[in-house]
Structures are given as structure tokens and as C-alpha cells.
Amino acid sequence: MTQTVTPELRQWIIEQARAGFSPEAVLKAMMDVGWEESVATEALEQTLEQYVAGLAPVPMPRPDLSGSPRAIDVGDRVVDVLVAMRQPELVVFGNLLSDDECEALIEAARPRMTRSLTVQTATGGEELNPDRTSHGMFFRRGETDVVARVEARIARLLRWPVDHGEGLQVLHYRPGAEYKPHYDYFDPKEPGTAHIVRRGGQRVATLVMYLNNPLRGGGTTFPDVGLEVAPQRGHAVFFAYERPHPATRTLHGGAPVIEGEKWVATKWLRQREFA
Ligand SMILES: O=C(O)CCC(=O)C(=O)O
Ligand SMILES: [Fe+2]
């Protein structure tokens, strides 16, 4: 006797998937009530494929690169698109910040710099990290006029609300200082992550803005793809990670500064409002 796959069965399969059951578990449940393995497998594959294809894409911060623009007008400035990459999803921008804005950010940050800490996903606290020998500070969102202006510009460029962003972080590297390769998302396997993402959800994208010109060294490296972005005042590198997984190839680091010093401002974007 041939078995037919009804709309009710397809609906049931979708409900099981949405409840978090693995395809293997659903297959076993179907076979337990008498479905032939080949029919059940086919029904599962077809139904889930159609279901996933019909899902709305997850909204993400990203610039509008449709039509391959050479530059993007964000209202108060025309930002150059210098490099765009798919894997990792990455864009290098030129002319995002004016020299005056870079200077103002450095001067407002300078008196508040302390040795950089990293969020410790094991506990949800913060720790001194030997892989990170820069000094840093955080601005509150909108803390100064320049901060507010830059944040509003980023929101228009990346089409992501200001309130979904963390406060701007400023980092200062002296010769020899570096930030070893790391991911910016919070590792889902670490016990502290659940607590961290309660506020604003995961990090889904990063914008590193260069505030000065180191003489040598200090690029932002992406070891998985052998890419190094030169730190050039007013430029920025954007990269996005739709899920917190190494497959996004967003492993990156701040290469050691060889000569001169390096100042950057980092904006991390969250899934939801970061209150
Ligand atoms: O300094 C850099 O180039 C990278 C900074 C960075 O990775 C970060 O702030 O998360
Ligand atoms: Fe980073």
C-alpha cells in the first residue's frame, strides 16, 4: 500500500521542528506510527526545505550595497565603499569620520583610558586579558555631541537603530600592544553567555573605526581569510555575524603596533534594544 503525505502531516512536521525536535527524532516518531522510512524521509526533507525557504530573513545591520555603490550618502556625509566581501560579510569604508571627529573622540577618551578588560563569558563578569594589551574606555550612548552624531551616522549607514548598539568603545595601543584574534560574539557554550545576552541579545556586527594613523603595524587582521585592513584615520571596517559561530569567519584581531600608536573606536551592534 502506498502512503500519501497529507497537509496535516506536513503541518505536524513543522510543529515538531518549531518545538525544537531534531529531524532524526521526528523521523523516528513517524516510523513508530507506521510510516515507511523512505516516505517519511522524503516528506520530512521536502516539508522542512519549503518551510525554511519561506521564513523571513533575519534582519541584520548592513549597509545598502544594492547597485554596487562607490559611495553611500548618509545625510551629513558621503561615505566611500572601498572593499566589500561576502565571507566573512565585511565592508571597508572610507571617509566615515572627519579628522575633527577623530580628534574629538581621542581627546574626550584620553583622560579615561584604563587597561582593557574583556567580557568573561565563563562568569558574565570582566577580566584582565593578556591577549589584549590595549587601553580602553566606553562612552555612554549619546554622551557627547560628537558621539551622538557619529552614532546617528552609523545607524543610517548600517540601517540599525541607535538603541541596538552598545556605547562606543575607544582603544589605544602603544608600540607592541595588540589584540589577539578573537570573536566578538559571546560564545554560546560558555555558562555566562545566557546572562550577558539577556540585555540586548547577541552581538551581531562590529564596526571598528580608525581614529589616527599608526606609522607601522596595527592593522585589523582576519586570519581565516588572510585579510589585513590598514588602519587609516576616518576609515572603518564593518563585519557581521548572523550566528555566533566560527563558520562566519569573523575571527579577527588587532595586529601589534610596530611604530607610532593606534586609536580606534569600536561599535558593537546587538540583536535587540540594548537598554
Ligand atoms: O583594534 C583593532 O583593529 C580591532 C579591535 C577589536 O577587535 C575590538 O574592539 O573588538
Ligand atoms: Fe573584536
From TrEMBL:
**Cofactor(s) recorded in Swiss-Prot or TrEMBL:** L-ascorbate
Q: Which UniProt keywords apply?
A: Dioxygenase, Iron, Metal-binding, Oxidoreductase, Vitamin C
Q: Name one Pfam family in it.
A: 2OG-FeII_Oxy_3
Q: Does the keyword Metal-binding apply?
A: yes
Top-level lineage group: Bacteria
Query: Where is each Fe2OG dioxygenase domain found?
Result: 164-271
Instruction: List the molecular function annotations (GO) for this entry.
Output: iron ion binding; L-ascorbic acid binding; procollagen-proline 4-dioxygenase activity
Q: What is this protein called?
A: Prolyl 4-hydroxylase
| Source organism (scientific name) | Tepidicella xavieri
